[in-house]
Amino acid sequence: MSLRKTIKRTRTRTRRKNRTKKGGTANNSSVIRKGNKIIKTYKKSGNENFKRELIIYLLAKQEKLDFIPKLRSFNIKKRQIVSEYIGPTLDQIYKGRVAEKRKLIPRIKKLYQKLLKSGYHHNDIRFYNVCMRNDKLYLIDFEFSDIKYSDKNDNKIL
């Protein structure tokens, strides 16, 4: 393989590994994956969403909710949450295979019931907010979570 192809291949792998995507509301945060960590940083306009998400991660730690990724660290001044990277979302795994995704709805409902028992609604349950690792499901993206139910855009799966 030529040196040029090797460099191009390395750059592509690095970009894939450290992709940046917009999280949640289009302009309120940025999400970066670095190795086995997810770094989510909120803008000032997303301060309320930051607080909602942080509350759920702290609740998960306190209540030992094993279906929520582990909180690695947080910085209130920077409005930043660092959590463990679980794996791809169900949307990424089952791209275009709707019937296979729908078979997982009963399992997702069980996770959601556990969250409800802790007193919170996710309010944004979508296939792209559920991840899978070794056939175990995890809920992610809690910026719309609240003690009240209020689905973000009525495009829910549950």
Amino- and carboxy-terminal Cα gap: 50 Å
Which strand-content bin applies to the residues? 15-25%
Low-confidence stretches are 10-24
Relative helix content:
25-40%
Strand order of the largest sheet: 1-2-3-5-4
Q: Radius of gyration from the CA trace?
A: 17 Å
Main β-sheet: number of strands, strand sense, barrel status? Answer: 5 strands, antiparallel
Name of the level-1 CATH class: Mainly Alpha
The number of helical runs is 5
The mean pLDDT is 86
Question: Which fold does the CATH topology refer to?
Answer: Transferase(Phosphotransferase), domain 1
CATH superfamily: Transferase(Phosphotransferase) domain 1
Order of helices and strands: HEEEHEEHHHEE
- Which geometry do the CA atoms define? globular
CATH architecture: Orthogonal Bundle
How many β-strands, per DSSP? 7
Structural class: alpha+beta
Count of separate structural domains: 1
Task: Using brief descriptors, characterize the structure shown.
single chain, 158 residues, alpha+beta, Transferase(Phosphotransferase), domain 1, 5-stranded antiparallel beta sheet, two-stranded antiparallel sheet, 5 helices, 34% helix, globular
Description:
- The protein has 158 residues and is α+β, with helices and mostly antiparallel strands.
- It has a single domain, classed as Transferase(Phosphotransferase) domain 1 (Transferase(Phosphotransferase), domain 1, Orthogonal Bundle), CATH 1.10.510.
- Helices cover 34% and strands 21% of the residues.
- The chain contains five helices and seven strands, in the order αβββαββαααββ.
- The chain has helices spanning 3-17, 47-63, 90-93, 98-102, 105-117, and strands at 20-22, 29-34, 37-42, 71-75, 80-84, 130-133, 136-139.
- A five-stranded antiparallel sheet has the order 1-2-3-5-4, covered by helices on one side. The protein has a two-stranded antiparallel sheet with strand order 6-7.
- β6 and β7 form a beta hairpin.
- The N and C termini lie far apart (50 Å).
